[in-house]
Write a structure and sequence with these properties.
about 525 residues; alpha/beta; Jelly Rolls; 2 domains; six-stranded antiparallel beta sheet; five-stranded parallel beta sheet; 19 helices; about 40% helix
Amino acid sequence: MKKQLTIQEFFLYTMISFIIIAIGYVIIVDQFVFIKREVPFTYRQFLLENTQSIKNKIIIESGSNSIHAIDPLLLTNDLNKPVVTIADNGDYPLRLKIFNLEKYLQADDTLILPLEWNQYYYESSLPKNFIKALADRDLKLEYYYNHLPIEEKLRFIFTQYPLTEVYESLKYKRDTKKIILDDFFRLNHFLRQLQGYSVDSLGGSSRNGPEQRVIAPINKTCTKYLFHGKRHLSAAFKDNLKLLKKLKDNKNLNIYFLWPTVVDHKSSTCYKNIEQVREYADIIRKYVIGQGFQFIGDFSKNHFTEKCFLNTHYHITHDCAITRTRELADELKNNLDIEDTIIDSSQINSNQLIKKIIENTQSIKKKLEKKINQYYPDIDLDKRKHQQLTYNINFIKGWSEQESWGIWSLGSQSELDFYVPEDLLTSKQFKLTIKGKYFNGVEKTKVTVNDQYIGQYVLENKTFIIDSSSLVDNKINMILQHSLLKSPAELGKSHDNRKIKFGLYAISIERYAPKMIRNDK
């Protein structure tokens, strides 16, 4: 006869079962839903991670208003101090942004927060667009979870992340090899963006419009778009400010708040009731200053007319962003705390900063290359073509974006390198074949291979003989020099302003064995 459980035993076993299920659920979410990428999906998170070791930097974090309103390239040069913009969507939770920043900010760094108005009145619930992107097919925002401390991860899993999203994420087939290839592809893409040495390289935007208005619905007023009828300080913001204060003290950071940049549209003017906005701004400023932070500037001075409108009431054109950035540089120079850190041994211009970031990526690049070689030891270089080009070839500088047919050169000089397969390393010589096309007329391209200039050639279908003795670290390095550069826009063919010349289809390499010629007497 089976022994009946006592009430105490029933509750004990129930509790043990519940704990086991909870632990199992945490493991599933932590290990199989939020898979950590070697290279983050977003470019600005990549900038944050690869500037960690750079001292006395300025990080600009908020929503997209700062991407479009502040030129980090110009600010770096004006202040002689490293500046990067890592902002993303203004709806994303400030609390999780703070934990993400905590991992990468160092002592004496400066954090600038031009928060959108909604960050002051939003409650703690997570927006749908954020929830959907966390562990989607591309793992776009996985780092927001993976950079949380353990207690915050548990809080997030059990109180904020829906079970339905866990289920949806587990339905994706996560191929480890494909993730590594995607990361390598993305890293090369990010490196090319850095090598543009532009405002976009440091996280800003060069977009100058005009663009179509993208606010939905189209007839939404600026006031409704900015405030949603709310003008109060939420409990969530007050909690975030406490968390930010803890970060400031623990890391010895300089933290400054700015007002967001807003812009009128021809169909709707912002800040119509300016006294009402000023009253709300005073509430925010007094509370923030009371918690030990500083505000820079006045909200009304960050308000631009419709001639600066790009596509939303938070996005201004780059021409207007230059004006805003110069004003901000003056404001920062007038602030004693920041002025004290400008003139020091860390003085740097934008080109030097970009070069430092590129240097910082080399270790992760080597790590990815080793993993790719591990997964694909017998990779066939003859298949280095079309969309596969950036998987196997390192486009060092002077190249545009990967396209379905291949990739365009960008500017007067283009450099690439790639590994020679191990089974070919015993050869004394190789046949290296390049296939491609030219824009605006065929011309000869100057070619340098492994630091040796080998002449000028048309590269539509050209084969070179390469000595294995010229290899460095089992790599072939090529530099192509172009002339007579024109953009499609200059020729009236499109709005594309890229200075392009040679389009690379494919590169192949094979063993070369010259035929022996007999001399019969």
